[in-house]
Specification:
This protein has about 100 residues and is an all-alpha fold. The chain is about 80% helix and about 0% strand. The chain has 6 helices and no strands.
Length: about 100
C-alpha cells in the first residue's frame, strides 16, 4: 500500500503515468495499474527500477526501511540539483540583459 501511495503521489505531483512506469519496468500496463491501486506490489526487480526513476518511491522505500538518514541525504542532493538549475537560469537571464 505504501508503494501504491507513492506512485499515486508521483502521478499527482509530477504527472507520472502508467505507460511511463510500464516503459521503465517492462511490465504490462494492467500490472502497473494493479501497483497504482495497491492490489499487488511490484516485484523486487521492478521496485528497484521504480526507485531509480521515482523520488517518491525511493523516499517511501527509505522510510519503510527506517533509513531517514538516507532520506535527508537524498533531499539535500535534490535541493543541490535544483539550486544548480536555478543558477543556470539566472545566468541565462543576466546574459540577455
Amino acid at each position: 500500500m505504501e508503494i501504491a501511495a507513492a506512485l499515486q503521489r508521483a502521478s499527482v505531483e509530477s504527472g507520472l503515468q502508467i505507460k511511463t512506469v510500464a516503459g521503465w519496468t517492462g511490465a504490462n500496463e494492467r500490472t502497473v495499474k494493479n501497483w497504482f491501486s495497491g492490489q499487488y506490489g511490484p516485484s523486487g526487480e521492478h521496485l528497484v527500477i521504480l526507485a531509480r526513476h521515482s523520488h517518491e518511491v525511493l523516499n517511501t522505500m527509505l522510510a519503510i526501511m527506517e533509513r531517514r538518514d538516507l532520506l535527508v541525504t537524498q533531499e539535500i542532493v535534490e535541493i543541490e540539483r535544483r539550486i544548480a538549475r536555478l543558477m543556470v537560469l539566472v545566468q541565462e537571464i543576466k546574459s540577455q540583459e
